[in-house]
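[job 0412] stage=fold_complex status=start
inputs:
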Amino acid sequence: MNQEAIKELLYKMADDQLILGHRNSEWTGFGPLLEEDIAFSSMAQDKVGHSLALYTILNDLGEQDPDTIAFTRNADQFHNTVLTELPNAEYDFSLIRHFLYDTAEALRFEMLSHSSFEPLALVATKVRGELRYHTMHANTWVKQLGAATEESIGRLQQSLELALPYALGIFEPSPYESDLIKEAIFEGEKALEEKWKKKVEEVIAQTQLHLPKWETIAPHYGGRTGKHTEYLQPLLDEMSEVFKIDPTAEW
Amino acid sequence: MKSLDPRVNRLPKTDSANTAPKVPLDQFGTFEVFVQPKAGKPFQHEGIVHAPNLEMAYVLAKEAFTRRFTCVSIYVAETRNIHISVLTDGDDDAYNHVSEVTPEGEKTSFEIFHLFKRGKQHQHVGAVVATNPNEALWIASQELRTDKQVFNIWTIRTSDIRFTNQDDMDLWLTLPEKKFRDAAAYKGGDKLKTFLEASKN
Amino acid sequence: MYGGGNTFEGIKSDELTGEDPIKLAEFEARIERGEKIEPSDWMPKLYRKQLIRMIEQHAHSEIIGALPEGTWITRAPGFKRKMALMAKVQDEVGHGQLLYSAAETLGKSREEMIDDLINGKSKYSNIFNYPTFTWADCCFISWLVDAGAIVNQLANAKGSYGPYCRALDRICAEESFHLKYGHHCVIYLASGTQTQRDMFQEALNRWWPPMMHFFGPSDKISVHTEILMKWKVKMGTNDDMRNQFLDMYVPKIWELGFTIPDPNLKKNTETGRWEYTEPDWEEFKRVINGDGPCNKERLEVRRIAEERGRWVREALRTPKTAYVTPLA
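[job 0412] stage=fold_complex status=done
writing structure:
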């Protein structure tokens, strides 16, 4: 099997989950209502947990241990899509990002549960229940707020338009697409993107939100090859502030 | 506001002079949450969530009540839709206060919950078919009453409950593996012992 | 997390007049038998009032208590700590949710309670008005403030009000993870590098005085609470709780080679009670009345959270559902 292709896939998935889990954890204690504060935190924990599972596979493939990978790299060594590193802004943006990203994530893992690369297929199968909850949560909220008051609909619409170019960046093609498909490791970003568009359309159609035509949205690429916004490095500096006091110490 | 918390420093400014008090009862509906801890065990009342509707209540209840310990299924029902019997004490059984009711209207299914001990939680004991909650109580007294004393009975129309769908049974699949939320994952004994031995020398 | 300090108002001598003596006797007999009082049972007005006050303060302490530790959520070192701290702070919010629900069964809505928190009408545990300067401060809270809270909560779980006791049973079960996690963090600091040890010693020096305040003023100067003890609202005196905490945790702190910043701290082998320098109760009063290092920030953060969430709550309010008091 093509190790480089697998590693590229694992890194971008793991980095996505770590960075978005980290971002979402910033809401803990500040949420719009107590019950939602709790739910959003659980999903952030799930995400960080998924990144750990994926870094652990990478470690088995000869990469460094998960803590070192996560807490010592610089922004240009991260492969997360830019969508995940953007600041939380208000709850409308965080919710729309959660909806757009987790819809893709759930589909990706569903596809990967049939992967010929067994360690990944195992993780993908195991977390399906968690992702089912994430999408149930996201869909319920988007349907609720996307059809409630003028303000909530307006806010979600604005955030949707802001997030969509970055969301399309999730599917930035990798140099290994054909290898992954040929070896039945992963059906490829193109196939995922098509499924994702259908799901997003399906949910948005049940709201008063308006989805722009796909061809009018220019995808924001670059994250997968380490080209990030000014927001990622400060996030990483903050995340590793204690860890880097002494990276050899046990905390 | 300059804080030690970087998250706080990122919070947007809002006008504190302009904070209007909440309108009276700026508050959603109340929903009672029932949890089944293991397959074969009865559902038990665990608490409430506030939510705008049954579906949201279900989504919010899942993490509020089942992110820790074991769970295989939950359901929720709006508090207004729960019919409550008298609360008794001593050796007075709540069913002593239930009398026969003449059926009226269409038959439907009701879920019955018993409080077996004051201070504990209500447990699901079964379902009956009746035309209204009072008749459901009467039928429950015939069909579901046992020797065990009951202090209080709740009756909920089955159709008023948001159950967990068959498809959603895997929501709790990884719960037992989330060890980071488990006291057992934080065994410091060995580390402590090594440390204590080293500090003796 | 809650310590029980300054929980009760002084009771006026006429507050029990006007209660039906027969119902009052039945109520007291039920408590005497060790039975729980449920929301639909008769209860004296004073019992209801003091319980709302206490449970509400407890709930506020949970959601405000999420803030000082939350300060380190984005900086926890390594996966293990990162995930645990996220889950722990989340639990505190969850405990707030459970406790508000218990208080609601007595007739005060959650939103009224949150309003009263933000406008300063109701209090929360004093200890959360102190800052967490380093990761070690966060570890101190996870271990020792939670330990103190558990001493108090285990006692209160044997109280007389059913919904509060049930919430506490659940909370105590969850807190066992907090305590173990906190101790684990501190063991790692203690057995780590000199920098790590110094970090914790400094945190201990900072947090010891507020920790002693945590259980409330000395019985010698605190409000008389006999009737609340008889009704099993308050389950132990402040000094008893403090003594129990010292008994359980001072040896564990010393075991790790740290110094507790009180030269007079020792156990009197004859009385079995701990002796210590009398905490500065003037500072305690000053902080509880708003003049602590972080009072303003804590309330401001809560206010901003409510303000930012306002549009969400407005969008969720529907005429189809209406607020009702929880059942149990």
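[job 0412] summary: Chain C touches chain B through 77 residues (CB under 8 Å).
[job 0412] exit 0
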